[in-house]
Amino acid sequence: MAILTLTLIILATQFMNLCHGAGIATYWGQHGDEGTLAAACATGNYQYINIAFLNVFGSGRIPQLNLSGHCNTSIHGSCRWIGDDIVACQKKGIQVLLSLGGGVGTYSLSSPADARQVADYLWDNFLGGTSNSRPFGNAILDGIDFHIKLGSGKNYDTLAKLLSTRSSAQQTVYLSAAPHCPFPDTHLSESIKTGVFDYVWVQFFNNPSCQYDTGNSTNLVHFWDKWSTANAGLIFLGLPAAVDAATSGGYIPVDVVITEVLPEIREGPKFGGVMVWSRYYDEGYGAAIKGGLDGGDGGDHVSNIGIAIILN
């Protein structure tokens, strides 16, 4: 009986390691006609949603959100309804993070002291602190996403470490990063080296040297293997949800993702799932990949092994 019990414990551990809840992440906020945040969460497709973007901050600038028509970020209180949506998403078990940066904006961190000021601002206005100017009201976001594409990568490592120290028994501050697939990433390599990032959604698009090319996933898998060594929690495969979502290529038909790409990368201990860019372009792409993750060959294979051992 003891041997059988031990066998079942080992089996359960192996099952959990292989099926650790791989999920779908996306970005919301860059298209006014993509629907509400609550509607995105109601689809049941996503475990993580990044609100994009806080694209003005640092170096003495007054921080500004750019939510592309969802609300007038220049008018105090006009975005508070998003706070209600954030809470609704969190009640469904979805983590909602604020994304810093983006491809358009004015942002930088001039010094470690500047990074501390930005960290304090983020804590007081979006996380567990208090401020009269909280854009989303009393909603407390789950963490901060680093989507740094402009300027240098200096002092973002300091910002990440400062934010990580805000985690407590009452609130975990999750950190994520969205590097491009060339390894290491120009803007985020030093930040990721800190080891404080829970999720890294690597963008395998708009980068011909490391993205999928028609019928050929060799470069993608090669760079995935490099990223799997990153000092971070879970690594996600970042893909465009439609051809139009990536001006320089990288779109992969969903059947190819499920049957050819995922089997090459999903068995690693750091595989977290897939990030799809973005909610606006995601018209069934994320749902189809979620189905592949939930019912993929890896999961079925482990389940069948479990039945065989229990019956024997």
Topology, please?
Blueprint: H1 2-18, E1 23-28, H2 37-42, E2 48-57, E3 64-65, H3 80-91, E4 95-102, E5 106-107, H4 112-126, E6 143-148, H5 156-164, E7 174-177, H6 189-193, E8 199-203, H7 218-227, E9 234-240, H8 254-265, E10 271-277, H9 285-294, H10 297-311
Parallel strand pairs: 1-2, 1-10, 2-4, 2-5, 4-6, 6-7, 7-8, 8-9, 9-10
Antiparallel strand pairs: 2-3
Helix pairs in contact: 1-10, 4-5, 8-9
Question: Main beta sheet: strand number and arrangement?
Answer: 8 strands, parallel, barrel
CATH architecture group name:
Alpha-Beta Barrel
CATH superfamily: Glycosidases
Multimer state = single chain
Percentage beta strand = 15-25%
Radius of gyration: 20 Å
Number of domains: 1
Can you count the helices?
Answer: 10
Q: Write down the overall geometry.
A: globular
pLDDT averaged over residues: 90
Strand arrangement, largest sheet?
1-2-4-6-7-8-9-10
Q: Could you tell me how far the N terminus lies from the C terminus, measured between alpha carbons in angstroms?
A: 13 Å
In the CATH scheme, the class would be: Alpha Beta
**What is the count of β-strands?**
10
Question: Could you name the CATH topology?
Answer: TIM Barrel
- Poorly predicted residue ranges: 1-20, 297-312
Helix content: 25-40%
Give the ordered list of helices and strands: HEHEEHEEHEHEHEHEHEHH
Structural class category: alpha/beta
